[in-house]
Amino acid sequence: TVLRMVAGLEHPSSGKILVGDNIFCDAQTFVPPHLRGVGMVFQSYALWPHKTVAENVSFPLEIQKIARDQREVKIQEALKLVALDGLAHRYPHELSGGQQQRVALARALAQKPRVLLLDEPLSNLDAKLRVQMRTDIAKLHKRLNATIIYVTHDQTEAMTMADRITIMKDVLVQQIGKPQNVYDHPANMFVAGFM
């Protein structure tokens, strides 16, 4: 729900959503999703089965009315960034689970988002591929210099990938901090049990 509110797909009942000094949502303002500069990777990847890899990646660029020649450049850049540059003409059913996950990531990255939202993107992958993708996403984060909000229920993912962790229970924040600090000094029994 938090990711959907940051993306502009849900309206919060109160409060503010800010990225830097930019207000996305408050009592007077609501910036529509396509104007936020936010990319989102859904847990299910949400790829269109009837569209090629390139067409899937192109979709947010088309919504933003980016010219065709500029779209082609952005598609190729995004596919290269996720190591899929030779698969632009394939369809999702012709790809492995890891490759499908990378297409969803490329689609989110093509628009060069200020904020990248990842909703349990590794939960559908086998254990070996999850380890590889954790490493790949961490490297990508360093190259992008963008904020990534990554939702996971997997403590290993949280501890190995995060600069800061927010532990939530029943929509309430329980603790925010650096992974090691949260692990060493849990704010309450819930956080201690989770970590």
Verbal overview:
The structure is a single chain. The chain has eight helices and seven strands; from the N terminus they run αβββαααβαβαββαα. The protein has 195 residues and is α/β, with parallel strands linked by helices. It has a three-stranded parallel beta sheet. Strands 1-2 form a two-stranded antiparallel sheet. Strand 4, helix 5 (127-144) and strand 5 form a beta-alpha-beta unit. It starts with a helix and ends with a helix.
Mean pLDDT: 89
- Following the backbone from N to C, one meets helices and strands in this order, namely HEEEHHHEHEHEEHH
Q: Which percent bin holds the helix content?
A: 40-55%
Which structural class should the secondary elements be placed in? alpha/beta
Q: CA-to-CA gap between the ends? A: 22 Å
Brief characterization of the structure:
The protein has helices at residues 2-7, 53-63, 68-81, 97-109, 127-144, 155-161, 179-184, 189-194, and strands spanning 17-19, 22-25, 38-41, 115-119, 147-151, 165-169, 172-177. With 195 residues, the chain is of the alpha/beta class.
